[in-house]
Write a structure and sequence with these properties.
Elements: H1 15-24, H2 36-49, E1 54-58, H3 61-70, E2 77-82, H4 86-89, H5 94-99, E3 102-106, H6 115-118, E4 132-139, H7 150-162, E5 166-171, H8 174-181, E6 196-200, E7 210-214, H9 224-230, H10 239-249, H11 253-272, E8 279-280, E9 288-292, H12 297-302, E10 308-311, E11 316-320, H13 327-342
Parallel strand pairs: 2-3, 2-4, 4-5, 5-6
Antiparallel strand pairs: 1-7, 6-7, 8-9, 9-11, 10-11
């Protein structure tokens, strides 16, 4: 079967993760996380992020973001995020509906928040007529496949904390980011000032599953267990999510999967960079390649490969790789692009 280049959500389950699920499928286990396998996985997360951290397994990324953020805000408070953030563009207003709080999208041509972008939100508007900023939510890697440098993230977190705000990191692809930066999971999040992490697993080899990690358990004031249940994110057969995270953390498999996906994106970028009419539009820093090409070539390529047109007006496409993408997959895809672009306009 040919690989798609649309999303890392399309990837198969990593073999070690699948084996972990099979191994857990023996006998009975107490439901809702009161089982030894779940406790083991939570202990592993504490070992990575700190013994005072507090983690909760959920089903998907939207659930992780919504539950995490809902624990941090009051009804009159708001979340600041890039206008391009998944929270703002691709979660169907789930946070607003669930929490009853406002998202304030900040214009961000590079899909990143910068300190200067946030300064206007510290000025005025502090009375009862206005929602009050409380949390900034950023994605690492970003929706454009790019990275906050450690210095950028540290400065952003410091600025937020100076103004009494918290920092939530949508880490659907935090493994890709950490691998690209040459950092560990804690070193790329908590140690830089992040308060709460949505730790993605689905895009990095898991069947399904994300973990919300509060780096200070007092942040959610014991709200998280109830928010997870009300948010319909409490798995009755929790062990099957938990063992996936155990396997992902063991032997730093998260890094192996993510580094491979990143390497395949760089290979793809190198393969297509000399194709006439193909222009790579954004830095290739993780596992995404953005490019423009002749509009007529797109349907020729999609006859064989599935991917998304990211910005129709250009058109700009997004090609994504994952843990199971092979060099042969990349080479064949690049050849198909080259062939499609070479067809004379009719």
């Amino acid at each position: 079967m040919l690989r798609t280049f649309a999303s890392d959500n399309n990837a198969p389950i990593a073999e070690e993760i699948l084996q972990a699920i099979i191994s857990a499928n023996v006998g009975d286990a107490v439901s809702y996380g009161d089982d030894p396998l779940t406790e083991r996985a939570l202990a592993q997360l504490r070992a990575v992020f700190g013994e005072d951290s507090d983690a909760y397994f959920v089903f998907n990324g939207t659930g992780a973001n919504v539950v995490a953020l809902s624990c941090l805000v009051k009804p009159f408070e708001a979340v600041l995020c890039p206008a391009t953030a998944h929270l703002q563009t691709d979660e169907c207003g789930a946070f607003e509906r669930f929490a009853g709080c406002k998202v304030l999208p900040v214009p961000s041509p590079d899909s990143k928040l910068h300190v200067d972008d946030l300064r206007p939100y510290t000025l005025g508007g502090h009375d009862e007529h206005h929602v009050q900023p409380r949390v900034i939510s950023i994605s690492q890697s970003t929706e454009f496949g790019t990275l906050y440098t450690p210095a950028e993230l540290r400065d952003l977190c410091s600025f937020a904390h100076e103004h009494g705000w918290l920092v939530h990191l949508d880490g659907a692809r935090i493994a890709n980011a950490a691998a690209a930066l040459g950092l560990g999971l804690r070193e790329s999040t908590r140690n830089l000032g992040v308060d709460v992490l949505s730790f993605g697993g689905t895009k990095n080899g898991l069947l399904l599953g994300e973990a919300i990690v509060f780096f200070d358990r007092t942040l959610h004031q014991n709200i998280a267990p109830f928010a997870r249940k009300q948010g319909m994110q409490l798995a009755s057969k929790m062990r099957y999510i938990a063992v996936q995270f155990s396997a992902l953390l063991e032997h730093d498999r998260w890094r192996k999967y993510a580094a491979h996906a990143n390497a395949m994106a760089r290979r793809l970028a190198n393969q297509v960079s000399d194709i006439p009419g193909v222009r790579i539009t954004r830095p290739v820093e993780c596992n995404a390649v953005f490019a423009t090409l002749d509009r007529q070539a797109i349907p020729r390529i999609t006859e064989r490969y599935f991917f998304y047109v990211f910005e129709e007006s250009l058109p700009e496409v997004r090609w994504m790789t994952h843990h199971a993408t092979t060099e042969a997959d990349v080479d064949a895809f690049a050849a198909a692009i080259r062939q499609a672009v070479a067809v004379p306009a009719g």
